[in-house]
Amino acid sequence: MRRDTGRLLDQWLLAPGSWRLVLDTGEGRCYGQLNRFAKPLFISRSIIHAGRPAGTSIGLGDRPPWRILVEQATRRTTIADVARAAGVSKAAVSFAFNTPERLSADTVTRIREIATGLDYRPDPVARMLAQRRTGTIGILTPQGLDVIFTNPYFGEFSAGVATAAEAAGLAIQFISPLHGSLTRAVDRASVDGIIAVGLGAAHPEVGQIRRSGLPFVVVDSTALPDEPGIEVDDEGGARLAAEHLVELGHRDFLVIGIEPPSASSGMEPAGVTALRLRGYRESMSAAGIELSDAEMVVGPASMEGGIDAFRRAWASGARPTAVLAMSDAMAIGAMRAARDLGLGVPADLSIVGYDDVDVAQYTDPPLTTVHQPIRRKGEEAVRLLLAGGRHRDEGPTEQQHLETRLVVRGSTARAPRGREEVVDDGR
What we know:
By secondary structure, this protein is an alpha/beta fold. It contains 15 helices and 16 strands.
């Protein structure tokens, strides 16, 4: 089909709903295509003139052969098409999109303009392979996603990671046990670096990541001092929490700890749970209170985990006046379980959490807890990871130590009358 109407010189039906057009711009003819799903895409004059001596006009005889028009209209533009139109090599086109610093600014601009005119879109996978990176940071955790996403702490930590990653033009990927195997998940992850949360020296994944050559940062693990890491004063924060309750006259405690990822892994001596337990015991011991193993239960770091842990302890005969939970989620769960049993908080039972997640200030009553800079931990982990990726073998390993503090709200009060210990403030 052909028409001569105004400046539209030629139009061919290429396929149902798709046409090839030739327009007279006044300075030469431009070829383009139109279909029913998109706006017209016209090749610029710079492309039509590519490779043609300056001052040479384009005549009707210069129209590309029918075969070429059909081919161009029915397939995606390739890097070879851009290279041909720009009069450069395919490698130069690749450099223009992936490593522009290898070309002059003018060359990069010209190639990209021609590519835009041809509606060329770099293949993201090919681009990834050319750059030998995925543009993705992995967040590795030994717990399954069904556990970690029920803990508000992890959501806030991930938000910190995401904020810093997005600012650096990176995406994030969660790496959790695949079919029960964290090693398998690490092996299949396609990332440029890893932020490992809660891994101890005994985890085989540590050696696996080291062998991969990927930069990585550890979070909440003092057992790996030779790696870049972020940690908070878990022991000091726990001391403050227990000391607060001791000063309120409490002497009958229940500690709700975070259970290990698997029964065989046990409690890491330098892990978060062990450090917080040590801090609790130090403050109690200073007041002459001995915390027995029977006064500690463990569960998943979630609200359901806290509910179940408190119910189990109560069913076993525990009658605490104060609960020290190693996460706010567990503390909120314990608060719910206590109320279900007819206990008032804080009239009958004081509860202290750990983390100071956003929701802690909105519980009823607001939760007394140990504050740690959760989002900042995530942001700093990304910063360390990027620094490690650039300067992995230079200088000493950087460790970030962040402080904790007690935030007193409405979930703690003096021990119930008859069950309190008189504390001499001048001791």
